[in-house]
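Hi D.,

Good news: the full-assembly prediction came through. Inputs first.
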Amino acid sequence: MVMAIIAAVISCTEKTDLRSSGEYKEYIAVDATLTDRADRPQRVILTKTVPYFGDAEDHANAAVRGATVTVDDGESTVLFSEKDPGVYEAPEGYCAKEGKKYHLRIDNGDDTYEAEAMMPEGGFSLDDIDYAWAGNKTMGVDSLWTIAVWGSDRPQTSYYYITVAVNDNYYPFDLAEVIDDKYFNGNKVAGFPITTLMQIHDLQEMYGDCCKYLEEGDVITLEAMTLQKDYFDYLIAVELNGTFSSIPLFSPQPANCPTNIKGEGVMGYFAVCPTCSASVTVEDPLRPYYKKLFGSIPK
Amino acid sequence: MDTKEFGKGKAIKTYSGLEPRVSASLPLTQDLSIKAAYSRSYQFLQQARVSITGSPVDTWFTASPNTKPQISDQFSLGINSLFAEQALELSLEGFYKKSRNAIDFVENAGIVIDNENREGLLRSGKGWSYGAELMLKYDFAKWNGWLAYTWSKAYYHIPGLNGGEKYRSPLNHEHSINFVLTYDFSKRWSASGEWVFYSGAPTTYPVGRYSYRGKWVPMYSGRNEDSLPDYHRMDLSVTYRTKGRVQGKRFSGEWNLSLYNAYSRHNAWSIAFNYNRKENSAEALKVYLFTIIPSIAYNITF
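Then the structure:
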């Protein structure tokens, strides 16, 4: 372990033009997550994969257009229409219901892809959230706030995708958290610090308000999406093959992420998840405690 | 998942087997001989590579009810010749080794070093390797050492991994050269150098990518199908023996000054593939550990 730490500390990097000698084949990538939120658009995003070092033109042509996308819940079949290139949306107000199994079907002319996903029963019950300032200039993060939750966990082992937003500008996947409930399994939680809100100056230009320094009046929203175990495993695989691949010591053996989509030449995942959210308005960005837990502490 | 309890000191599982070894040498002339050997071995302790690159956190597994010992059969055939009044020895040897119960981690095993169920992430199957080594040893009055070249290939075929296809073992090194030279300037001063080269260290690079929830997800075409850049380095050292050491006294010592990686090559430890957010593009980064490392040591013999 000492050698591991020494290696991690003293290693250096430099750019190289190495490329894989493996054969690249174009696949269809499916990004489809339905939720029980009727106030949110329910989307299926279809793109073509691109060579790893593909250019802007590859990206511009990546959208899969003109596909027929339907979702069947056993009682009715809903047609998703293409709102933007490759982005297929359900009719307004459509959302997933608890305990139902959903069947996704994508007809791309020559090929058909299908997947099934079960909506988890229950889901995290989120009552409230609060924030506390946790410091600055740590590990590439300019400022840091912890976000605590009040609510109830499901009795069974649960898996969550936790993301935060500032003024409705949500964290990207890179900065969200995929966690299980080992610290509060089946219990009520009150003031449990579940995730962090990071102000990263370098990323603000790309990600907008979600990476900004908090100011009075900003609205923080936390969203908890309850995942089936297989979808949790998929998101962990995405995280490890992406973020962790740049840390050789701990990066796992590279491998294609699993998929639950049936068909030739397809990647990605179809999931259905109950989703809850709660918000808090920032009063004092430098408040170092949870007001909802401790009340007002005189300075 | 199930749990079984065993009494204190009770063997959970016992493996046993014979390890026959046969070797023969046939002198053709006084300076020329051929040799052949066969051996079977049981390996009760096996290592599985945890991460994309060999690292100190690679995990060792003892034989257990779930992990059988690796059983290997190795065959070799060689020819050996002496020249220059037996100061030069030239040998050529070929080998073939096949193994059962070779282990490797399942795909998408996650971070396994802190996973208490990591043995459940192992899969086992066949392994085999073959190759040939050409070696020249020299032992003259002032200088000695050896020059060796090895060509070899090593494969695994483990059901459930790499789509059921064979793939290169993490330990595969296709071409390997070792050159060692020691020169004695006097009884008290000597110098030595070593040059190491190998190619074909397996790794896996992404061939494509797709976007999921706004994140780049890499695609791969085959396990260990790419190779890290060729590795080579030179180590140099100079040794000064104290008077007592030369005279063979107890509690004598010697100074040693050495340079590891003398020409400071940036040998790749790993290649990391990243999404560069600022440039919105992919990049490959070579990760290397050491450049030149000088060291000085005083060795005491007693």
